[in-house]
Amino acid sequence: VKKLTIVHLYPELLNLYGDTGNIATLHKRCEWRGIPSEVVPVTVNDMADFSTADVVLIGGGSDREQRIVCEKLLAQQKELSAWVEDGGALLAVCGGYQLLGHSYAMGVEILKGLSLVDLYTERDSPRLIGNVAIESPISEQPVVGYENHGGRTYLGEGVEPLGKVLFGHGNDGTSGAEGCLYKNVVGTYIHGPLLPKNPGVADYVLARGLEHAGMDAGLAPLPDVEERAANTVMYDRLMNGEEKE
Amino acid sequence: MGLRSSLAVAGARGTTFVLRNVLRRNASQLPGRVALAVDPHVLSELAKKIGKGSVVVCGTNGKTTTTNLMARAVEASGEKVLCNTAGANMLAGVTAALVPGRSCDWAVLEADELSTIRILPELKPTYLVLLNLFRDQLDRAGEIDHVQDVIVSALAASPGTTLVTCGDDPLCMGVALRAQAAGTKVLTFGIAEKLDTAPDRVPEARFCQKCGAELEYSYRHYAQLGDFSCPACDFARPALDWRATSVHVDEHGVSFELSGLRLDGPSKITADFGGTYMVYNLMAACIGSLLAGATVAEFQSAIDGYKPANGRLQRFDVGGREVILNLAKNPTGLNQNISLMLQDGRRKSAFIVVNDDYNDGKDISWIWDVDFERLTADPDIRLVAGGHRANDVQVRLKYAELPARIALTVSEALEEVRDTDLSEPLYVLCNYSALWPAKAELESIGARL
């Protein structure tokens, strides 16, 4: 029996903003539809096996942890890059998002990233913190969540943002772009976590993973009553006079 | 006292008088703000009226209960004590607490972790009690590393202060070792035996504070607290200065024997409230009381007379149903409340209320770090979600396969569980800003138990 393999990279290090919520969402939405899936947590002492992965999640961590993870993944850069080019579904949130690019900054130091997507991240103050809402082509409903980052991320030509900022700061606080979309990679500063109340994004990632697994990617609709309500309540609040932090 | 400080204190006293007698308001902070506006260093002047010493209590969870019990015990020993009982724990609140009266023997003060850097250099307390460090309010407090740095700096600026901290907590010990290296005297306490409690997740601090290797535990009590050691270096739980043994935790409360410094032998302490976390709070409160000259008997009498009035484990009768109100403002706090509910053998319901006001932290992603999945062990539990983020709580519970309704108030939550037997209690678990409206509502619709 074919199954969807969801690889969770370094949950013990990258767990700053409820990242397990994203994994729980992917897993449950498969289970509720009767799609066989398996979550494979990879710790820093393990070597990730991308040849069997269909979906990979990289979450957010503190600076120290982000650096450990990046060094670890740089050793597997070729394999990971080939997997991305082959259509693997990669969701990278916050610190994980910054790792996708050519470089990212830590204090005054510029560190080499994984160069999976043509983007780079500088650092500036203040930190961009607060609730966020964006309009995204991959989700019928607006995408809502929370952002908290010192990084300013700039996309290369030909890399689409995940969406347009309706409320909040986004990639750099000024361009109106939030996150990135490249092949089947979704990068974003939005946590909260991202997937539970943005079922459109969750199902986009799942569908891309199922395609990669050679499985039926036509997802049966789920009722999503609670998810949509949570999304709408926050969206309405943000659009109706919520003060931006 | 200099002219400026005298003016500052006079201004604070005037403010207190107006707030209490004219406006009939609580005077927990504003007098402190007034005094600080006149003299930013008024706290160091006020500290001079403390005759014997002061204890400052900080830590993510348990500050208010620990501080209040300690203050009561020291008072029971016949000392005159000043204390910020209302939990106003920033510089202004601590300053306001020291305004009343000409002198006192001891000051027992709760301090917000990040405020220690402003409080310690001025107050120069005899003891700083650091209870625990858990992840809390990332958007406001920042990461735990930052909180640790702040406490280390605060201790460096108050070299005479002895640090009393939880030896079972690797994060507290990370602070302790750095402070010790800089000359601070450190005393530690912990639970020195394996408990038969069900484990929860370790949300943070799995890693050695010195070398970064993953810590090993011979036993773990909850979160990151336990008998830890690093397989790669010498970082480990220290030889404890105070040890709790014969620990018993159940739905009726906690009991344990405390042994260590200033004690002749193992001394039994009991309380009819709390779970494992309360053992640590009681130990810390007892140790602070002992250091301030009180006896274990005086501490026990403080517990016996303690009726929590601040929404911490307060019990009410509403129309014949027991309603238990408690604060739960971060993953560890909620996880400990889940343990409390699972220890309660009765069928029950829970109303989980999460707000996202500034004081709560506007980022509620932490609800995904709570191990709600453990509640599936109780197939009869009924859940209701509340607060400004009720919908997010409902989604979180849905992904734990726990269906929940939404209610705006405690009365509405009671309405949702009206069909359950009156012998089944309702737990009302609130984060910070949600606690006060729930408490006020329960005081108006119910009777204190």
Structure characteristics:
heterodimer; A: 245 residues; alpha/beta; six-stranded mixed β-sheet; four-stranded antiparallel β-sheet; 12 strands; 27% helix; globular; B: 449 residues; nine-stranded mixed β-sheet; seven-stranded mixed β-sheet; 15 helices; 36% helix; 22% strand
Tell me briefly what this model is:
The complex is a heterodimer of chains A (245) and B (449). Chain A is of the alpha/beta class and 245 residues long. In chain A, 27% of the residues lie in helices and 30% in strands.
Commentary on this structure:
The complex is a heterodimer of chains A (245) and B (449). The mean pLDDT of chain A is 95. In chain A, α1 (20-31) crosses α5. Chain A has helices at 20-31, 63-74, 77-85, 95-99, 199-212, 225-239, and strands at residues 4-9, 37-42, 55-58, 89-93, 103-106, 109-112, 119-135, 143-155, 163-167, 177-178, 180-182, 185-188. The radius of gyration of chain A is 17 Å and the shape is globular. Chain A is an alpha/beta fold and 245 residues long. With 449 residues, chain B is of the alpha/beta class. Chain B contains 15 helices and 18 strands. In chain B, β7 (216-222) and β8 (225-229) form a beta hairpin. In chain B, α4 crosses α11 (296-304) and α6 runs parallel beside α8. The termini of chain B are far apart. The chains are: A alpha/beta (245), B alpha/beta (449). The A-B interface holds A 12, 15-21, 24-25, 28, 45, 62, 64, 68, 129-131, 146, 148, 191-193, 196-197, 226-227, 229-230, 233-234, 245 and B 138-139, 143, 145, 203, 206, 212, 214, 362-369, 391-392, 394-396, 398-400.
